[in-house]
Amino acid sequence: MSLRWQIGLALAVIAAAVGSAAGLGAYLTTERELRRSVDQSLTAVAARVGNQPGGPGGHGGPDPGSGGSDAPTCPDAADVAPATDVKVVDASGSVTNCVSSADGSVAVPDHAPAGFRTVRVSGSRYRVLVADTSRGSVQVARSLSEDDDVLARLRLRLAALVAAGVAVALLAGWALARGITRPIVRLRHTAEAIATTGDLATPIPDDGRGEVGSLGRSLTSMVHALAMSRDQQRRLVDDASHEMRTPLTSLTTNLEHLENLDRIPAEERREVLDAVQVDVAELTNLLTELVELATDRADDEELELLSLAAVARDVAQRSGRRSGRAIELHSSDDHVLVSARPHLIERTIANLLDNAVKYTPADSPIELDVAGGRLEVRDRGPGIDASDRDRVFDRFYRATTARTLPGSGLGLAIVREVVEGLGGTVWATARTDGPGAAVGFELPVPDPT
């Protein structure tokens, strides 16, 4: 069932419930008022009959001591209207039918208690009042056929009104839902078209109001993010294939030389084997960094509060042992904590140090400064040209002074991705105290309170 019909039926059900409740209330109120009116008329008739001379409660009849008759006196028919049945019962239990209905006398059990009751005679309902007096009782009855006819017509009218209200609510709900869901239908058709064609540039309608417009804008943002992600993946694949082509070509050439291994002089053979090892190492490093860059490892680790200075100290020691280079660590505020993922932040610092090792002369130390959430690595290499500083963190970008050196061009890209994912910033500048570059990042420090 479509959303339009669901909304229409929901409004119809609500209209039916409200209309039924209102109709039932009106019907019960009308029935109660009609019954009260009947009861009031019967009470008035009973009072008039009881006060008739010679009646059960009258004072103008013959004196019993004088031998006169004690038979009750029936009132005129005009005096008992609108009652349709009147009985007078004297103290001895003798019953006198003063007025009888067309259906016959309305029977009430002997010694029935005083009060109102509803009885049925020959299929017709009557309202009966038994009223006690000082010399007997009076029973007056009135047909409820008129009231029943009124209530029957009222039921039909109320049912018709409820049915009409339900029909109007259903149609109005359907029309309203059609207007509401029209933008949603357009969004659905657009989403289906994007899924079928794969064209993420398809414009998404976001001109709806309220939540529908917000949904359209959210879908636009999502598709835009997907398009950017796909473009980045395509660019990553293109750049990776381009970067792999050089070491693969070199490796293929060197392997072809090894086919004539017996005829190659020992010194040249050694050079070929060294070149093969270099090519393999470069390919291995490139694939490792590609996996790091293409795989989102943010979900593998939980954020932890850790000392950036302590982490940098451990990474510097490992890097120094591995490269055999002198790394001078200057740190302060070791107690300051930052929110980061341990593995990723270690890889980030290691990439900065590896980058510095690659460009720094063997006899020059590498400086690592840490202060709170700020970390900077300074080398004594050729430095970074001003025109390259804004792009050194791009994937596969190689600065002018580094294009002849080995490397994948992914190390700093990984640094930026990790740091910006933690809400930090990166920079690459020239040293102020001589040749070399200063590359670093800063992470936000959580408020200790």
Quick overview:
The chain has 449 residues and is α+β, with helices and mostly antiparallel strands.
What would you note in describing this structure?
This protein is α+β, with helices and mostly antiparallel strands. The protein has three domains: 3-152; 210-293, Signal transduction histidine kinase, dimerisation/phosphotransfer (DHp) domain (Helix Hairpins, Orthogonal Bundle), CATH 1.10.287.130; 297-442, Histidine kinase-like ATPase, C-terminal domain (Heat Shock Protein 90, 2-Layer Sandwich). Helix content is 51%, strand content 16%. It is built from eight helices and twelve strands. The protein has helices at 3-50, 77-80, 145-197, 210-258, 266-294, 308-323, 342-359, 411-421, and strands at residues 85-90, 95-99, 115-121, 124-133, 136-143, 304-307, 327-332, 337-340, 366-371, 374-378, 425-430, 437-442. The strands form three sheets. The protein has a five-stranded antiparallel beta sheet with strand order 2-1-5-4-3. A five-stranded mixed beta sheet has the order 7-9-10-12-11. Strands 6-8 form a two-stranded antiparallel ribbon. A hairpin with a 2-residue loop joins strand 9 and strand 10. The protein is rod-shaped, with a radius of gyration of 51 Å. The two termini are 54 Å apart. Mean pLDDT is 78; it is low at 58-71 and 400-404.
